[in-house]
Structure formats: structure tokens, C-alpha cells
Amino acid sequence: MSTVDEAGPKIKKIIYLDELTLSAFWTLLRMRSLTKVIVLEKIRARQKFWCWLLTKKDVHVTEAAFFAGHLRTGDGESVRFASRRVAGQIALIAAKDIVESEPTIRSLNEEYGRNTIRLFIAKLLQAYIDYWPLRAMVAQALAAPNQPDVWLRTPALFDVKFLAETIHGVNFHFYPTIGLSPIKLVFFYVINVIRYIKLISGLGQNARYSEQGKTPRPSVLMLQEDNIRSDRSLRGQPHWLDVSQPTPNFDTFVVELPTSRFAICAMPSELARAGITVVPLSIFGAAIKAMGSDKALKRVRRDRGIAIRAVFHASGFANKFFLLQISYLLGQARLMGALALWLNSRVFLIRETYYSLSDAMQLVAPDVNVKTIAYQYSNMGFASPLMLSTADRFLLFSDMYRQTFQVNDIAPQKFVPTGYLYDYVANLVREKSYKHREILMRAGAEFIVCYFDESVQHGRWGGIGKQDHLSELHTLAKTVLADPSFGVVLKSQFIHNSPSQLHKDDNVIQAAKATGRYLELAEGVHRNDIYPTEVALVADLCISHKGGATAAIEAALTGVRTVLLNTIGAKTVWDAVYAQADIEYGTIESLMEAIACYRSGVAEQQTIGDWSKILHEFDPYRDGKATIRLRSHVENIFN
Predict the structure, then answer these.
(1) Percent of the residues in the chain that have a pLDDT greater than 90, as a whole number
(2) Cis peptide before 268 (omega within 30 of 0)
């Protein structure tokens, strides 16, 4: 086990420092017999003077040069990928510690049940904690095979012992930061008040919601988690309702959240035919005015006051901070409860489980007679707090995914396998796909490869860099240029990562485009709203990245050969399943060689991309009816 030492090292050695802050500078000045400090964060111009002063104390400071995605753990996994998994593990452990250490938090967590409050704390901690394991594991990779001494700023929201217990082979040391705890708490309280006012007043949205819009019919309540579309051949919401079918016997209300990422891409008349109404954020203000005094919400209002008062006698900054956050969550729960009562909602449908409003509804749902249904929409290679839910039901692709959507005693009440969520798309996009394929074939393409990219990050802490992305694109583009029978179709996960935006002036890509056998498909503003199915049906073989692999599963379900490119050495809980098929390749070069062998008829390469032996593990149905089963679960609650 790594050691945690606040006193500072006593002997000469190289140390790794997270960042040359003022607090770190003063800590280094007090050290003796240090010869070299390697700083992981960029050393800025104003910090160069500090470096010069430190040389007078025989402390020599240098800046590390690295890209986190290129560094590897001892078992060959990308440090950036592995650290996210570790951060999630620590977040769950630390959340349990916080709940158990603070009586009021423990009491509220028990009162509302299902460990929803504990999960909420873990979600808050996930992004916060990521800083420490990432830097520790980067230092570990840079120092290999030696065991590094790593100095990090002292975290304010979790116990440092969890780092040492989770990450082995690192000597942890922590330097203090400037303590402004009371000011920080006041700041967090003010921020929460502003966020609450924004919810009840609909700030940022001009539309007001009047009581005339109240419906006597039972309804489904959702948050806007995507573009609102009536065209189900593109990614959108609510995908499970078909506007061309008869109006259901319930209404569907979608609360329009204040974000520029999502739009309404449907005519109101189209949505009305399906009983769908998009309501502005200001509906919360109308709902709390109409239903705020309902007896079902009195407990939530009381407990919010208890959480706020507990801040004044709680011990430690972390406990005070999380009490404030819980008070805000309870405020959100009261708003969600009032809204459900006002709109006669009987079902709350959850896709994005990381929204705090989703956890808030979970707290109040039993009191307002609402059933909560969460549903899986992506492949999960390991459990993450952000994707967990304590809903009444959690609809999964297959029973296999239970292990990634529950951790110890944090789980939904019931898991229900319903198949891959977007398995209906093939019938809607087949004609479009054939037209795309025809374009490539007219230009001479006889064998077409589809390429799905993952998110591209910039800066030293990223996982997949811009140059890594370009290198893979160049391999494909150069094959297009060298082989007149080879075609490529591409789809990025995000619009801003489309090759036409990231590499718009690249000569190799421009030359490949000029052949007519290089095609990029994109639709949308933030995410690329084209489904992987549409692109997969253009191709003879699809390339996806193992780090996510949702696009790979969707492509494989269309019947197209699909491979996983694992340049980051990603480890997942499905590795034993993947190993049963010829689908995983470590480099783009080895993959292209395998594709060439397959095309030339090499016998041992004819199984490339064939998921037939394992596809049932990911979707036991494979019948195109997952959305029908989802809708059935919703409708059964009204019957």
C-alpha cells in the first residue's frame, strides 16, 4: 500500500508535483535535499520566477512533457481511460464514507431509501476526484519502473486514504491549500440559491407557462435530454413515440432545459398528434405556485430546512458542502413533485441518469405516486456512478449489463432486459443508406469501410488526441488513394469532431474526397444525430473504438461485420465475451492488413468482424421491437 505523508520527504529523490501553485511553492521551499521536481501541469510565465528562486535552495524544477492518452498502466491500458474507472470507484467509496460520517446525511439517506442520496454524492464526486488518480497514474507511468513520490494538493471533499488504498505503487504526499472554507461555503450556498431561482422563474427562457396548459389526462414526464424530433430516423427524443401512430391514452411532457445544445426539430402539430408537449423551464414556477402546499411535499420542504440547519454544526468542510448540495437536491425534489402533481404524471422516464433532477424525482416519486423508469442507451464497459440509477425499473439491452448498473447496495428496484434501444432504426434508414452506398459505388468503390470515431480531446490530459485521430484517418484516406476499389464512409460522435471541421485543410483527406470514394455523414449541432445504423448499412465492414463500442454493437446488430479498434488498451468487463470472436485489433495497421487478407480470400481471416457467436449476449431479442417493449412498460403503469 502506498504511504500518505504530510511531513515531506527526508532524503534526496525525484518527486512529481501536480502543479506549481503558490501553496506548492512554499511547500518546496521548506524541503531539504531535493534535487529534482517534475511538474505535471504546464509551468506558466509567472511561475518561472519561482523556479529560479527554488534553484537557490538546490531544488531544480522541470515541466513534464506528455499526453495522458499515450501513457500506459502496468498492464498496458491508457492512463486516461483507466483513471476514469478508478475515479468512479473512489467516488462510490468516498460517498459511503461521507454518508456514514455525518448523522444528518445518514438519516436523510435512510429516510428516502435506496441510497439515492449516497448515489447523488458519488455523482458529484466523480468529476471532482478525477484530478487525483489521473495525476498519480501519469506520474506512475512517467517514473516506471520506479515507484514515484507524488505531491498533490490536499483534496477538500474526500479522505486521501482512499487514493492510497486504491492506487498501488505510488508514494502519496499532500501539500495544504489556502483555506477559505467559510467563504467557499457561502459561495456554494449563493450559487445554489441562484440555480433554484433559475428553475422556478425560467430564467433564460422567455416563454411563461400558464395554468391553462394543465391536463386532466395522466401523463409521462421527461427532461429534455436531446433534440426533439418527429423524424425517428435521426437521433432524437422521444424516440419511442411514433407521431404517425394513433395518439396514446396519455400525454407526454418534456421539460425544456436551459441549454443551447438541444433544439426542437419538429412542428408543434406533429408533436400534438402524439400527445407530446414541450414545456419551458418556467413551468416549475407555475407548478410550485399551484401545488407547493400539497401535503405530499411537506416532508421534502421540512427536510430541506433540516439539511441547511445541519450545515452550522456539521464537522468538516466536506460534510458541510454536501449538506448544502443535498438541500439543493431536496429543493429540486419539491419542484419535481409539484410538477408531477400538477401535470397528473404517473411515469417519469429517465435516459440521462446523471441529471440531478432525475435523482431529485427519485426522492419524491413515492409521495406523488410516480413510477420511475430508467433505460440504458449506451454500452457500458464498467460501472460508473454517473450512469447508475435507483429507479423503480431499469430497462437494459440484456441481462448481462446488470453488473455495470449496480454497485453493492446501489441499484434500481428491478432490472428488465428489453433489447438494444435503437434496434428499430434499420427499417427507417435503409433507403438513405443505399443511396449513400450508391454514391460511393458509382465512383468505383467495391469494398466500403465505415469508420466511427470517439471523442477527440485537446491538451496534455486528453485520451485521444487530434493527431491520433488524423493518423487513423490518413491510413484510411491513403488506402482510398492507393486502391480504386476501396471506399470509406465516416461518422463522428460529435459535430465538432467531424474530420471536415478538425482537419478541413488536410491535403491527404482532401485528395481522398476528390476520388468520390470518401464520404462523411453528419447532421445536428452538438451530437451527430445520424444513427450508426445508417452508416453501417452503407458499408461492408465497420470500425469502431473499444473505449465506447455502442456504435459497434448497433452496427453488428444490422448484420454488418464490425471490429473494435483498441489503440488505448482499454480493459472492460466484456473482454472475455469479445475474445470469443475475431473483432478486436490493437492498431489501425494490423487491422488494415487483416482487412486486406479478408478481401483476398485468406481462409483464417474470413471470420473478421463476425459477431454471430456473441451478439445474443448484448441483445437477446434482436427483433427490432425494443421501443415497443419500452412503451409497453410505460403503458402498463396507466392500465
Answers:
(1) 75
(2) no
CA 582 to centroid of chain Cα atoms: 28
* Arithmetic mean of pLDDT, 118-143: 97
Cell of 571: 480493459
**Dist CA 229 CA 300 (whole Å):** 35
**Burial class of 231 by CB neighbour count within 10 A (0 to 12, 13 to 18, 19+):** middle
φ/ψ region of 204 (left if φ > 0, alpha if ψ in -120 to 50, else beta) reads: left
Specify the pLDDT at position 113.
95
**Cβ-based neighbour number of residue 109 at 10 Å:** 24
Q: Residue 11: is its pLDDT beyond 50? A: no
The upper half-sphere exposure of residue 349, i.e. CA atoms within 13 Å in the direction of its Cβ, equals 27
- H or E stretch including 416? strand 415-417
Q: Considering the entire predicted model, what is its pTM?
A: 0.93
How do residues 368-403 score in pLDDT, each as one tens digit? 999 999 999 999 999 999 999 999 999 999 999 999
**Cell (9 digits) for 12:** 534526496
Residues in the chain: 639
Contact status, residue 572 vs residue 382, Cβ threshold 8 Å: yes
Distance from C-alpha of 126 to C-alpha of 86, rounded to nearest angstrom: 10
Exposure string (b/e) for 30-49, b if CB count within 10 Å is 16 or more?
A: ebeebeebbbbbebeeebee
First to last CA, the chain: 56
Please tell me the distance from the alpha carbon of residue 229 to that of residue 631, in angstroms, as a whole number: 17
563 forms beta bridges with: 543
Q: Kindly give, in sequence order, each residue whose CB lies less than 8 Å from that of residue 524, ignoring residues fewer than 6 positions away.
A: 227, 234, 235, 495, 530
If you compute the radius of gyration of the chain from its CA atoms, what whole number of angstroms results? 27
| The C-alpha cell that represents 91 in the structure block | 467516488
Q: Which residue has the cell 433489447?
A: 419
Rounded to the nearest 5 degrees, what angle is found at the Cα of 499, between the Cα atoms of 509 and 70? Answer: 100
The answer to whether residues 38 and 15 touch, using CB atoms and an 8 Å cutoff, is yes
CB atoms within 10 A of CB 22: 11
Question: Mean pLDDT across the stretch 533-557?
Answer: 96
Q: Packing angle between helix 131-143 and helix 116-129, nearest 10 degrees? A: 40
- HSE, CB side, 13 Å, CA atoms: give it for residue 253: 27
| Residue 350, strand partner residues | 374
Q: How far is CA 113 from the centre of its chain?
A: 25
